[in-house]
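TICKET #2291
ISSUE: user wants both folds in one file
ATTACHMENT 1:
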Amino acid sequence: MRITIDSNVCIGAGQCALTAPGVFTQDDDGFGALLHGREDGAGDPLVREAARACPVQAIAVTDD
C-alpha cells in the first residue's frame, strides 16, 4: 500500500489524524502529514477509512 497526501488540496481538517493516528499526524501548520516510517500504512486497517473521511479527498491510497 502507498499513501500520498496532496498538500495543495489539504485544508487541515484533521480527520485523517483522528481516524488513523498511528499513520497520520498534522504538521506545524495544521495540515495532514504521514508519520515517519508509515508511508506504507504499516498495516493499519483504518488508513482507507481515513482517506474516505477527508472532506477534500486529499489522501490517495494505492495498492502496490
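ATTACHMENT 2:
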Amino acid sequence: MQRQAIIFGGQEVGIAVPGEGRLRFIAVRFHVIDLDNQLFDTVTDIHQAIKRHLAVTRSSKAAA
C-alpha cells in the first residue's frame, strides 16, 4: 500500500502512511490534530476514529 489521502466530510483531513504492517495517520487539518501520528490497522479504522473524535469534540463544545 502507498500513502493514501484520508477524506472525511468531503475534505482532505490527513494521509495514511504505511509502515510496520499498520497505517500512521498524519493530520493536515486542525480539527483532527489530536489523532496525528496514531497507528491504525485499516483506513476504515481511521475514519471511525475521526468520527468518534469529532462527536466528542462537538459534544464538549455544546456543553460549554
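RESOLUTION: both attachments delivered.
EXTRA DETAIL ON ATTACHMENT 2: The chain has a mean pLDDT of 93.
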